[in-house]
Amino acid sequence: MSDQTSREQQAHLALVGKPTAPMIDTLDRPSYAVYEGPTMVEGKQYGAGTWYHGIKHTHSDEAGQPFDLWLSAPLYVKAETINSDDGSVGRLLRFKHRGQVIEYVMPMEALAGKGEEVLKALLRQGLEVDYHQRRYIPAYIASHHRLTKVLATTTKPGWHERSGAFVLPNRILGGEDVRFQDSGKGALLFSERGTLEGWKSELAHYCQGNPVLILAVCCALAGPLLSKVGVNGGGVHLVGDSSSGKSLAQALAATVWGDPSRFAASWDMSKGGIEIEASSRNDTVLILDEIKRADPKRVQEMAYAIANGTGKGTMTREREGRPKLYWRVLALSSGERSLSEHAAISGNAAHAGAELRMVDVNAGTRTYRAFDAVHGMDGAAFHRKLTTATAHQFGKVGPAFVDHLIKETDPDYFYRRFAEVRDGFDTEGPQAGRVADRFAIIGLAGELAITYGLLPWEEGTAAHASRQLFREWIARVGDGNAEDRQILSALSDFIALHGDSRFSDIAAQLPNPNVKHRAGYYEIEDGMNGKRLYLFNRATLTEAAAGYGRDRVIRTLETYNVLAKVDSGRRQKNYRLPGGGSTRFFVIDPDKLEGEQGGEA
User: Fold this and answer.
1) Which band of pLDDT confidence, cut at 50, 70 and 90, is reported for residue 14?
2) CA 51 – CA 42 distance, rounded (Å)
3) Pick from 439, 458, 506: which is nearest to 212 by CA?
4) Which of 122, 254, 319, 384 could form a disulfide with 127 if both were Cys (CB 3.0 to 4.6 A apart)?
5) What pLDDT is recorded for position 12?
6) pLDDT for the residue numbered 7
7) DSSP conformation class of 192
């Protein structure tokens, strides 16, 4: 045995003293061994750790000289792992750091080369390693073949289909045969502090009487229910002036799962960044602060991505497809502008689909801006009290809620409860119906949490708040088709902007020379005091309703009876032009544009 090894053994023996130690009579060399405590091996005592028992041959005809190297603190290879997302194989490693058990899922590919990635990951998480013998660690791990225990792993939190467990980076709810797999470099999103009772009394209690705060908390709870009742992802967007209380509502939502300072995200990222953030919060909630920080050219595309739950496909240098990111999440956004208003900054027309996927909620013009009740305080004191509490009470209620969901064995229970809540949302159009589904599942999450004793509210509080905010949305935008609404609004705005500059009287003897870039003409009904009917030419119809094809625009005009005059069998009417000639126009009644937009258009 070398002098260095002897010194290492003496140091370990000095640390552990001389208690009664387990005994091993014979030892195969070369081999690795892990000792949890002092162990007698072939008459020699070894301290706790991972050891390499080797044999050195100086000449081929000699028996060889045994030697022993202490490599690290006890490091166990507990199981083989198979990633459910991409099928990659790994190993589950376990060790202790300052008395705390650490588990690390190591991908086998990390052993390629000299295995430095493995060492980095283990050292980062606190494994004590003999620096001079570190090269043996990857070889020790690689020596474990045909492990009898096999575990599934996943790289994103949320429900794991094969096991039925709910996976969080720091804990597994409802299962033992699955583990969360990451690089160990990601931010600690899911964390906890305080107590559940403290969260209920210091935060949840003060949400009562405040629909926006109730919605925020229930939105954070609703993520685990999406797959239970088959509701798609999407989001709600809190709209209000600066310092109105929107950020406090988002902080309250974040406390359901973790520290608000870490769990909440920002719109200030690329579309790829949104995909990563959404996937890392799968089956929970994606909180995005300040939409003004988003790229106006991409914000609608990002809203679609959040709701659709599928990342963009990419390829490797070998022209092989990389695995896409997937997620199922509700988003809680905020901003001083709506999604469509922010997108308009770049000159892009608002997409009705994007607006439906990120629905505006009034969080700025309520009794106390974002609040309806301040529980006997002024608005500033109420805001300070809750803001302080969000830093001390978080991360308890989300896992507790999932624990209750896992215990429910009736597969139809959640469908029945969802149907009960959904019945309170009166809608006619299918698009408003999908938005109602989102508000209903948010309400359902709150009602279930009340049933489970996790929210100190009266039964019906969450469902009532969700219905109230949904009805406010319906009152603003109407219950009809969102694309129709946008087309009618765009044509009305076009007339308001260009009614005299790009249109002139069809009854005039000569064309008006002051009209540049002519959009058409107008016809005055019933003489001088009658209303104008606007005669759009074909090109202008699609110019006014930018983003929609001519057939789609005409279908809307016919649906709402906006076309005032047509020739038999046609959608247009033929007119004699000032100065001679004739052509056909789409004759639009502007009163019908205003009357059919719905809500407070």
Assistant:
1) very low
2) 14
3) 439
4) 122
5) 43
6) 40
7) -
Nearest to 212 by CA among 172, 179, 240, 177: 240
Burial 543-554 (b: 16+ CB within 10 A, else e): bbbeebeeeebb
CA torsion 481→429→298→307, rounded to 10°? -170
Q: Which amino acid is at 177?
A: D
DSSP letter for each residue of 474-526: HHHH-SS-HHHHHHHHHHHHHHHHHTTTSEEETTSSS--TT--S--EEEEETT
pLDDT at 33 over 90: yes
Peptide bond into 30 cis (omega under 30): yes
Res. 601 pLDDT band, cuts 50 70 90: very low
Length of the chain in terms of residues written: 601
Contact, 222 vs 443, CB < 8 A? no
Cα–Cα distance measured from residue 425 to residue 279, given in angstroms and rounded to the nearest whole number: 30
Binned at pLDDT 50, 70 and 90, residue 78 comes out as: very high
The number of C-alpha atoms within 13 Å of 136 and in the hemisphere containing its C-beta is: 20
- DSSP letter for 589, please: -
Cβ contacts of 66 within 8 Å, gap of 6 or more? 1, 29, 53, 54, 55, 56
Alpha-carbon distances, residue 512 vs 162, 169, 501, 533 (angstroms): 73, 71, 10, 17
Per-residue model confidence as pLDDT tens digits over 519-548: 999 999 876 567 899 999 999 999 999 888
The Cα–Cα gap between 154 and 178 comes to: 8
